[in-house]
Amino acid sequence: MWSQADHERLLLTLAVAESQQQLLDQLVQGSVKTLTGVTLWRQEDGTLALQGWSGTAHEEGKPIPLPGAPNYLLGWTPEAPLPASAQAVLGLRLLYLDALHEKLQLSDRLSMLHHAALTDPLTGLDNRRAFDADVEAAEGAHNDFAVVFIDLNGFKALNDKFGHALGDSLLRGYGVWLSRVTHQRAQVYRLGGDEFVVLVRDTVLSPEAFSVWAMDRLQIPFVDGVSAAIGIAWRHECENVRAVLSLADERMYFAKKMYAAQKAERSTIALQERRRFRT
Fold first, then answer.
1. Residues 120, 126: contact at Cβ < 8 Å?
2. DSSP labels for the chain?
């Protein structure tokens, strides 16, 4: 027989158990040797699936559904009656643990979906959506910041000549390079295609010194025929953040035009040299 004190103590321990196994252990340990073994089952589509056990299992009786949680069935030593109140608390705690587990799973899935929504799948960098949110946050902080727009010169020609696999590898490698050289100074994003952007919120360099550093360190160091057209704009240069983005974009496209003009000039000079040697 269960004493009142033992009964109340068992109900309290069951009510705070943090896992199915802890529930089963508490049943055996809190029964003051009245129970020698318990086994928990869960019924799914007409099939009993073992959930766990505690103590000795060979003497247990036929599993019976728990009050309030009919999908769960408990078997225990037949000669030792288990109070209905303990069965009820056990069933309620199992339902609570199920709900908690489902909540954690949903939270993990939401975190994964949130991460995927803000991440570029090719490079693993943050994407345009993340950039827009971070620029808005930087604007709200009322601190100076810089936006660096980058577009790759010569990337399309390389992609067309050698295939998308090499092009994708280049984009991933350049993303790693940008993240490495701007580590702890800025955040790197891929906007799409061969367009990248760097958001600089903390640097000890002056705008002029940072520009010199960026033009050197943000170039592509490992691929012939491909280079970075870079445009930089600072928040203090413009009336609002939209103007900052527009100015950085304009400067980047100016750099691309300069690259195209220089490339055309080199082609013209090379053509003239070939004609001169022919004559």
1. yes
2. ---HHHHHHHHHHHHT--SHHHHHHHHHHTTTTS--EEEEEEEETTEEEEEEEEE--TT----EEETTEEEEEEEE-TTS---HHHHHHHHHHHHHHHHHHHHHHHHHHHHHHHHHHTB-TTT-SB-HHHHHHHHHHHHHTT---EEEEEEEETHHHHHHHH-HHHHHHHHHHHHHHHHHHTTTTEEEEEEETTEEEEEE---SS-HHHHHHHHHHHTS-SS-TT-EEEEEEEEGGGSSSHHHHHHHHHHHHHHHHHHHHHHHHHHHHHHHHHHHHHH-
- Kindly list the distances between the CA atom of residue 193 and the CA atoms of 9, 60, 165, 168, 198, in Å, as whole numbers in the listed order: 65, 65, 14, 10, 15
Give the residues across from 147 on adjacent strands. 199, 233
Parts of the chain with a pLDDT under 70: 1-2, 32-33, 57-59, 79, 264-279
In sequence order, what DSSP letters do the residues of 209-222 get, joined into one string? HHHHHHHHHTS-SS
pTM above 0.70, yes or no: no
Spatial separation of the C-alpha atoms in residues 29 and 183, rounded to whole Å: 55
224 Cα distance to chain centroid: 34
Give the CA distances from residue 98 to residues 33, 63, 109, in Å, rounded to whole numbers and listed in that order.
28, 20, 16
**Domains of the chain and CATH, by start:** 4-115 (no CATH), 128-278 (3.30.70.270)
| CA–CA distance, 79 with 81 (Å, rounded to integer) | 6
For residue 239, the model assigns a pLDDT of 93
List pLDDT tens digits, range 254-279: 999 988 887 766 655 555 566 566 65
